[in-house]
C-alpha cells in the first residue's frame, strides 16, 4: 500500500520536483521548501509565477513578478540568472548546453551558458515557451498560433498559425510534433515535417497540465473528469484516433498529470487533492493519496521511479512512496 509523507505549507504550490532525489516545493511567494534531513527553506523570487525542472543540470529554473529568473540547486543554492526590468517573467524553460529561455511581455529571451542573452520580440504577448529536444531551437505560444526560432543562428522564424489564444507549449520528445494548450477547452498540434494540424477538443475545462510518456508514445492531459491520453505512435499523431480516458471520476476534475519515467503509467491528480496511478494498457488504477485540501497543481517522479512529490493550490504538499 502506498504511503504519504505530508508537508503542510501556506500558499499555492507552483512546482514539486526532485533535485538530487530530494523533494523540493516552490510556492507562489517565492519560497523553496525541501525535505532534506528536516524541513529547510530558501527564498528565490519575490512572487513566483513559473518554474521548470532543468533535468539535464538537476536544477529548478524559476521566474516571477520581480522580473527575475533564478536557478535553485539541490542543497539550497539560489543563483540569479537573468532580469527583465519591471516586467513579470511569465514562462521559463531549460534547453541544451546549459541554456535557458524565459518570456516577459512580448519578448522571448534565450540566455546561453556563457551569460549571453538573445531577444525575440513578437506582436503580442508570449504566453508559453519551450525548447525543442534537439538543437538550439525554441517554440513560443502566442495569440493565433506558435512561432519557432533558431536561438543560435540568424534563421527566419517559422510561423504556425491557428486562430485563438495559445497559452502553453510542448514539443514531443522525438521533436516531430508541437502541441499547445489553448484559452478555449482544447489542445492544438502541428506535425512539424509538413505543418499538418491536429485538433484535440472535447474537454469540459481548460487544459493546464501536459505530460509525455517515455519515448513520446502518449500525451497525457488534464481538463476533464479523467486523464485524457492521446496516442502519438503513428506518423500523424492522434489524428482520427480516440484518446484513452484514465482514472475517470464523475464528481472531480483532473488538474495535474505526470507520466511514469519508464512505464506506460500516469500519476493523476484531481481538484479535490486525490492522486491515482493508472496503467495505459488496461486502465488499472491504484489509489495513491486520498482527497486533501486543494487541487493538485504539480507532481514529479524520483529517479528510482518509486516516489512522487506533489503540491496543491492550498499548500498541502508531500511525498508518496508507491512501494509503501
UniProtKB/TrEMBL annotation:
Lineage: superkingdom: Bacteria
Ranges of residues in domain Anaphase-promoting complex subunit 4-like WD40: 261-322
Keywords of this entry: Repeat, WD repeat
Keyword Repeat among record annotations: yes
SUPFAM superfamilies: Quinoprotein alcohol dehydrogenase-like
One family name in Pfam for this protein: WD40
Keyword Repeat among record annotations: yes
Name the record gives this protein: WD-40 repeat-containing protein
